[in-house]
Amino acid sequence: MRIMCCFTGKVEEVKNTRIFARLGEHGNQVLIYQMSMNAPQELAMVLPIPVKAGAGEDAVKFFDFSKYEQVFEDLWELFPEPTSKGAGPFGAVRNAAAPVYSLKVISVGAYDASFVPTIADFSRLDARFRLPESVWAKLPGYADFGFAVFKLKAGNAQVHPMAFSFPTALSGTVFFPTLHIHDGEVHEKERFDHTLYLQGGSMDSARSGWQESPMLPVTKVKCGNTHGMIRPDQHVFRSVMRGNFENGDVVVKPGKV
């Protein structure tokens, strides 16, 4: 069994992970995340995020994408020409079910979501929706991270997009949570099936491995249904990661427009 990303229980398969990220206003980053998965029981997905130091429990804002499940299909349509299977720049940084003990739970479409400010705060979640403490001991680079936690239902399906914004500790840098953990273990390399979308700034496509969309999102994407997360007037960059890569998160520093 191989588990992509960070799950708190048994997952038979995860595939077709797609992530959109953009630096927002006032030091925030927005992130939209979707994948297909097969899980025999309910569990939680944990996304480590570099939250600005001192951020409170209300620092992360969750958004409901249950009425726009095809957002990534529409983003893909911005790129009419096929891309290679090479990767973009890659650098390792390193839903909560009731009862949730004193951490706020927010309903966003089919999910219950919580923001866990620190590793220590996982003790305030139901034990079924925590990762083993031994995992974090193997990942010292995440000591200062916060965590977005989504309760997921059992079954074999594509889940609707999970979306949120957070005050980022990585100024001028876009963060994609792509760390893999399976069977409570962290391996140096993992198999990826990811498509990453980046908006804002500029990239040298020939050198970076990111492809720029020839069309603006307004031509294909229902930007009005994205809670302002996808800008209609900015080109989108895409990187397809399929194959074996260093296990960690993707961190990108886009240039100025």
Walk me through the structure.
- The structure is a single chain.
- This protein is mostly beta strands and 257 residues long.
- The protein has a single domain, classed as Sandwich (Baculovirus p35).
- 6% of the residues lie in helices and 35% in strands.
- The chain has helices spanning 71-76, 133-137, 205-208, and strands at residues 13-23, 28-39, 43-49, 61-64, 106-108, 111-116, 146-152, 155-158, 162-167, 174-176, 189-199, 211-212, 236-246, 250-252.
- The strands form 3 sheets. Strands 1, 2, 4, 8, 9, 11, 12 and 13 form an 8-stranded mixed beta sheet that branches. Strands 3-7-6-5 form a 4-stranded antiparallel beta sheet, with no helix packed on it.
- The radius of gyration is 17 Å and the shape is globular.
- It starts with 12 loop residues before the first strand and ends in a 5-residue tail after the last strand.
- Mean pLDDT is 82; it is low at 85-101.
Radius of gyration: 17 Å
Could you give a short account of the major beta sheet?
Answer: 8 strands, mixed
Text of the CATH class? Mainly Beta
Order of helices and strands: EEEEHEEHEEEEEHEEE
The low-confidence runs, each spanning 5 or more residues with pLDDT under 50, are 85-101
Count of folded domains: 1
CATH topology: Baculovirus p35
The beta-strand count equals 14
Give me the number of helical elements: 3
